[in-house]
Amino acid sequence: MEVWFTEDQTNDLRIGCRVREVLFSDVSPFQKVAVLDTVEFGRMLTLDNVIQTNLKDEFVYHEMITHVGLNTHPNPKKVLVIGGGDGGAVREIVKHQGIERVVHVEIDQMVIDVAKKFFPELSCGFADPRVEIVVDDGIKHVKDNKGVYDMIIVDSTDPVGPAVGLFSEEFYRSVFEALTGDGLFVAQTESPFFNSELIKQITATVNGIFPVTRLYWAVVPTYPGGYWTFTMGSKMYDPKTVVLDEAKIAALNTKWYSSEIHRTAFMLQPFVKELLPR
Amino acid sequence: MEVWFTEDQTNDLRIGCRVREVLFSDVSPFQKVAVLDTVEFGRMLTLDNVIQTNLKDEFVYHEMITHVGLNTHPNPKKVLVIGGGDGGAVREIVKHQGIERVVHVEIDQMVIDVAKKFFPELSCGFADPRVEIVVDDGIKHVKDNKGVYDMIIVDSTDPVGPAVGLFSEEFYRSVFEALTGDGLFVAQTESPFFNSELIKQITATVNGIFPVTRLYWAVVPTYPGGYWTFTMGSKMYDPKTVVLDEAKIAALNTKWYSSEIHRTAFMLQPFVKELLPR
């Protein structure tokens, strides 16, 4: 018998993965949650039938949504992660010795439970004493905490369903206020091949709120088209020109991120540059 | 009615594209040739059911397999293209005014005919008076022409079927001999996520033949995983350290390639660096 998982990446584009076993499938108050054992990518988490992460390529996304900002800010101590209940971002953050507190706000308890049970490789950071897990709405948490965080990471699903509010101007304004005076945030912001209007809109919005707005990129094979972007809004530090601590970065033991890749990630192709605010 | 084209990118990974119309489908002496009008990517060429190119993302591959080498060699005059019957590589090469002659050796007449009829956006370079199209075996052509070319581009299909010989040590030795004293070649060399052993093997082989061996990368959304590599073997010039002619590059009117992207393409992630010869 052949079992395949198929995701509609767009209306007109699909990815299919051969499945050894469906390890978990349930419906939370927010979404359908499933864990698949795939032949090509190993264990895979899907939410509402969209691939979130998998053991083969997760390192790219999790290293790039965390270390770029953490090495731009000279001394990040308090970090907030919104979404990303799989734990991959938290695992990377706690590699940084200067971090004093990581608040991880995930709206869906089921995702956290599934991560603990099926993805110990990702959720291992949850055990770090500096990490506090809060099951709550990230939008509310950001509104209720002003001037608290050195860095905020928006590790959201796509801008449909529960994550829509995480792509709004109102939310980015709340993020600005939740940051300390020299804080910065990073959000995942989709593909320039398939979501170019969204990237235009987000970078323009962030540019209207933050003194420094930067788009950067990496390749996540299981996301549509592979080419994936992140947007940083920063009150003070510029990730393009920051002097990197090479020894500290080498000690992170990463597979995608490096000081070279930090710099490279901000070099955008002409067709991507066209999406940015003038 | 819904019509979908599905490619098995690996045994365990598939891509599916919604099809408006099948414009052409036939069998040549070498392979199955098809042209599809897809909703997501526009017109698409497939060979033996594998996506070769499409109007939406072709610019990435064609710009990167040509301009990196053409801007590394200070004065390329004679260029050989093996494979790539769609014409996209030739279109980019003839943008360079110093080019005197482009010999395009494609084994399959049907691919050339299909490119002329269905892909004028790619095959437009065929009309340039400097271009000579030769329907022949690229391996044979390289053996028969020694010391002739400043640059050789190996625009092959995957290393199965008719293209197997284009990934062999014997072929790379013939390429070395077909080049002028300061010549260089570029070949497409697959994905580090899915073909890491092949990349190891090719870079080691080329490194045993050429004084300079360099792996570089780009993102082609319709190729497995998006992250795609190219390998350059060069007798003299190093693409990593060459001083680029910024004005000349800006005039190429490219969407992916730029002088910044030329330099960043050689910055490899730690997991890719591990594949290179020590």
TrEMBL record, chains A, B:
Lineage, broadest ranks: Bacteria, Bacillati, Bacillota, Clostridia, Eubacteriales
Protein's UniProt keywords contain Transferase: yes
One cellular component (GO) term of this entry: cytosol
Family designation: Belongs to the spermidine/spermine synthase family.
A GO biological-process term: spermidine biosynthetic process
Active-site residues annotated for this sequence: D155 (proton acceptor)
CDD domains: AdoMet_MTases (cd02440)
Reactions mediated catalytically: S-adenosyl 3-(methylsulfanyl)propylamine + putrescine = S-methyl-5'-thioadenosine + spermidine + H(+)
Functional note: Catalyzes the irreversible transfer of a propylamine group from the amino donor S-adenosylmethioninamine (decarboxy-AdoMet) to putrescine (1,4-diaminobutane) to yield spermidine.
Class of the enzyme per the UniProt entry, highest EC level: transferase
Subunit field text: Homodimer or homotetramer.
Protein name: Polyamine aminopropyltransferase
